[in-house]
Specification:
The protein is mainly alpha-helical. It contains eleven helices and four strands. It is globular and about 45 Å long. It starts with a strand and ends with a helix.
Amino acid sequence: MTEKIDKYKVQAALVRSFFDAFSHGVIESQVEDRKEKTTPQSVKKLMLEHYEHIAPAFFDTMFFPLAAMNYKYEDIAALAREAQQRGDDMMALVRTACGNEAYYNAMVEEYKRNFSMLLAGKYLSNADHLEGYVRKAKEETEASVDSDRAIELTVRVVMFAYVRGLRQTGESARFDRSVHLGQVHPLRGATLFRLMLDAMNILLLDEAVDFADAEAADLASLFLKVCQTQHNFTVMTNEMDRTYSELMKE
């Protein structure tokens, strides 16, 4: 029997993972000097240069994961068609995907929080994210997402957002299989794995894990640490493989 994760926590993790992965994709594709990749000056400059691209990338990446938290998979395509027939714009579609006004407003707050940090040249740390993400109001009914689905949606967001960031300069997202975690290893594997570690940390735990010794530690052990169980680890790696296959078809 799989566990449940609070829906606000899942939604906040998805939004944070999008901004983290997309911005790193942009930076990886445009900044050669490793030391310059995450300086405040580089982050701020590139986010300002790609300001107009972020909202469309967010919609393309996030519509399905947000909708999948609130609707059955088989109903999402019909939901999108009905919204398009009404002439809904991009944000109206996202509002529909969020399920209700409370979750939509929470999503907007998380969007603003993450985007504002990047425009200031900073990244929201795991600890700050976990401390400050929007929680449910006292009068709201408790709602949750199956943990397997939450992991799968988060993996999808990280990988699609990262590739869409890489492609902002027209660069194709190339992959090889020389190093494996599950079966997937993109050319910039170190960055993707770090993004995935952070994403699993904020999704599955309530406090930030110290990755200071990450380079010296076994990668699988680090993932087991944030995934908590072998089952969660397997769900994550299986979804990485599936998403990899989907990206290769684009």
